[in-house]
Amino acid sequence: MKRTTIKDVAEKAGVSTAAVSYVLNGREGKVSEETLAKIHKAIEELNYIPDFSARSLASKRSSLIGVVIPQTENDKRLLLENPFYSDLICGIEAELRQHGYHVLISGVEKGQSYLDLTMQRNLDGAVIMGIYQESFYEELKKVDIPIVLIDSYINDDSFKKIRIDDELGGYLATKHLIEQGHTNIGLVTGMIRKDGVVEKRYLGYKKALSEANLFYDHDLVFEGQVSYEYGLEAGIEIAERHKHLTAVFATSDMMAYGVINGLRQGGLQVPDDISVMGFDDISLSDIFYPKLTTVHQDIKARGLAAARYLIDVLDGKQNLDSGVTLLPISIKERDTVRRIK
Amino acid sequence: MKRTTIKDVAEKAGVSTAAVSYVLNGREGKVSEETLAKIHKAIEELNYIPDFSARSLASKRSSLIGVVIPQTENDKRLLLENPFYSDLICGIEAELRQHGYHVLISGVEKGQSYLDLTMQRNLDGAVIMGIYQESFYEELKKVDIPIVLIDSYINDDSFKKIRIDDELGGYLATKHLIEQGHTNIGLVTGMIRKDGVVEKRYLGYKKALSEANLFYDHDLVFEGQVSYEYGLEAGIEIAERHKHLTAVFATSDMMAYGVINGLRQGGLQVPDDISVMGFDDISLSDIFYPKLTTVHQDIKARGLAAARYLIDVLDGKQNLDSGVTLLPISIKERDTVRRIK
DNA sequence: CACGACAAGTAAACCGTTTAACCAACATAA
DNA sequence: TTATGTTGGTTAAACGGTTTACTTGTCGTG
């Protein structure tokens, strides 16, 4: 069965294809009320559905937004099991769909470029989650579409960044623990890489310590993958070998859960024996028991902000912006941190 | 800067565009080793990246697979916060990407059709998660691409279904509780709709009860949204008004978590005061404390199977199959069910 | 009244690939 | 020898839109 095309519509309405195209694209002032009605009627009656491939070929606009999601190193699966990313996508997709855009998700192989995909598909914009090698960003700069970075602190004018103040977050979290009387505070964190989220949180931790005149002990920093599994490992080790700690700050909620379970395996109860503080306030943190005290950020709002930015730029309502949008954070007190005498 | 096209490649290699196209599409036996090498060289040197829009327009193939994710009814956000769906997507995306396909995710508005999107984007195939109105499937049948249903029990030859035996799962779960000595077993479940996953699990529950000569009491069936929130609500109510229950079977893990927390709010501890059984074994069930006893299914394998099927059909390695693939399930004993005397 | 400005619409080129149809040259079989 | 494939290639017409440049007709204005 042949596809209904713009030609059929034009014919039925007794106008040129150009006129139909104008209507489809909402060009103001190119068609009279009268022909507009005729065309709408024809579209309706023929049940016309435009072909985005053709549109994209002709116009270089695809109504397609790419979302890059970090993936595990070993198998190449998306890190979607971390609710932080699924929460983000929820916000992004909902907003984009309402504005006529569709979302193409994908991971990026280590060392691979995302440029290929943006060009192959004529992407209109992209949201990049996760942190990549420098070459990744260099490549990406070559393409001329609005791009939002979610996680990266890379200092490059080609990209919009939507962030929180991670250093402040790390600082507030640690300070909160200190205010509750803790002085031996361990840090469980991802790999501390320059210009990474994790590094900033780590710096915040150090700052709070030094401000309180507490000794920074590198042996209390447990550095590994940002994952539940590594948190578990660290928690077990802490329970076994670092019994003098009274609190642990984990730089992501998923790690904090790991830590809590690891501590429990090692015989320590949270918060009775030891306090744990998380970071992110993913949607599960209200569910998981004991309920996690953590640094709150509104993850869905962050997705929303990313989507809005892209939409506004693409609609011409906003100029390309290479700046940083900082979203607020706050300490969310729940049940895993206890004051000590 | 103008885009590098197949014409540039053809020119540089001194052949026709057709030859280049054949190479790009791996057509065997249309080009000699010699020209193949020339063309590859030209592609390499020019750093040529094909335009999928043009390809899709000309060939009706897009290398794009649509994945429909259920969304919440109130706001239109994807139900991605339910790890069941993110786990599925992990499996699907990884497999598809390795075979050169890309994944377009989207929700579908209530009452809307997915036909539009499949036609607009020339989708090569689709995976449908969630359950929709009949008209949704009717519409979808019109389009001539392989489609996999993940959740639906709809009996229609146009679709491939990849499932577990949900009734068996419900049966096994309930039987397990009965074997542990429970006789007053509540059911917390989603809306029981004909041909839905939830209904099958519910039927399994009833079957196990009647098989054990236990009385089925409709008052012990709590029917609401498949969500943590409703589980919470049900849990609270059970703790308040149904103290004689010794066990609850929740038809999804997320609901089970809600139930557990609701019970706790009502002063009941799991599993000491009451046992809880889940269904799905989402990746969090190993993390959440207490660890959930549940009906295990390999969710990622299910995603993988869906992706594989599409790939095989599209590669011509397999015929369209309107049958059902059943994946195995088993009872995963963890810490939320306790034997009673 | 002549002029330009504007509104409404059209014709046709173009976007980058695929692919059906065709062709030449050479090998093979009858 | 002639018909018959096969191999390796080309040409050019789609595919379904968008958009530039152009044509009309109408109106306001000096």
From TrEMBL, chains A, B:
Key word Transcription present: yes
Top-level taxonomic group: Bacteria
InterPro entries found in the cross-reference section: Cro/C1-type_HTH, HTH_LacI, LacI/GalR-like_sensor, Lambda_DNA-bd_dom_sf, Peripla_BP_I
Keyword Transcription regulation in annotation: yes
Swiss-Prot/TrEMBL keywords: DNA-binding, Transcription, Transcription regulation
Annotated ranges, domain HTH cro/C1-type: 5-49
Family annotation (Pfam families): LacI (PF00356), Peripla_BP_3 (PF13377)
A single GO molecular function term of this UniProt record: DNA binding
Residue stretches making up the HTH lacI-type domain: 4-59
Protein name: LacI family DNA-binding transcriptional regulator
Organism name: Paenibacillus haidiansis
